């Protein structure tokens, strides 16, 4: 190839590369402008956003007059909040053990309605007419609709405020899921100890006239376990007794002490204080063995419990023995007995008294 031809080819190549480079440069510039425009739009649409809160791109794509609620990241790190998550997850897994369902993440495992359906059916003893497995979003929302209608129908007459919806649960709104689970746990008197006074900060993002408006709101997930708006239980004779006839309380306590000592004396044991001496569960277990005439192996419970958890284990085990003996599940929670709640302890012992008062 001649020198002149080679030079012409090089100029042609340079011209082509130049045009290609110019095209790439223009596309890059165009993308930068587009990104800058999007960044500017988001900056305008999200004024005064709380520091430390990330607004994801999908959160700026809200329809007019709609809102999105997000949990503040700092609340996720709160130890009481983490404890609440763990207690609820362990409770669900315990309830659904026979169904071989294992929950690890409430947001990912509860949003499609499958776990909530099984949990409600187990707690209420009521079978819901829903498809077993639904993969489509429409099918999942239909199942959620059926489950939540049943839940709301059960809870609303007892004064519960409905803090959840099909859309909030399906969009994996953790706060809504927690409100629902706490309500179910409290209503069905789950044998768990919920951490008290758990509050979280949530960021509420709303779109009004094309502008995103943000606000930080505090949500209270749990209050106290006793005398709480979260803890709705039917009043019984012991509520009336303690509220209106405290003078008769000693008569009831004396009758129950006489009853339990009649049997515990066979093991050279004696009770003088109902609140404290049944709180670790040991006397309850031994009493059940005496009433049903069997020996309870020592490896099934803690003979000298030290921790709160060991005491709860003992009382829970005593409750299981009662149910094995044909008694109804105690209204009291094991945690309340351990916490020296007199009313709860009286309920348990009176239940035994009415069933075994003629036992020798």
Automatic annotation (TrEMBL):
InterPro entries: CH_dom (IPR001715), CH_dom_sf (IPR036872), Parvin (IPR028433). One of its GO terms (molecular function) is actin binding. CDD domains: CH_PARVB_rpt1, CH_PARVB_rpt2. Residues 28-50 are annotated as: Disordered. It is found in: Cytoplasm, Cytoskeleton; Cytoplasm, Myofibril, Sarcomere, Z line. Residues 31-41 have a biased composition (Basic and acidic residues). It comes from the Eukaryota. Pfam families: CH. Keywords: Actin-binding, Cell adhesion, Cytoplasm, Cytoskeleton, Repeat. GO terms for cellular component: actin cytoskeleton; focal adhesion; lamellipodium; Z disc. PANTHER family: BETA-PARVIN, PARVIN. This is Calponin-homology (CH) domain-containing protein. It comes from Anabas testudineus (Climbing perch).
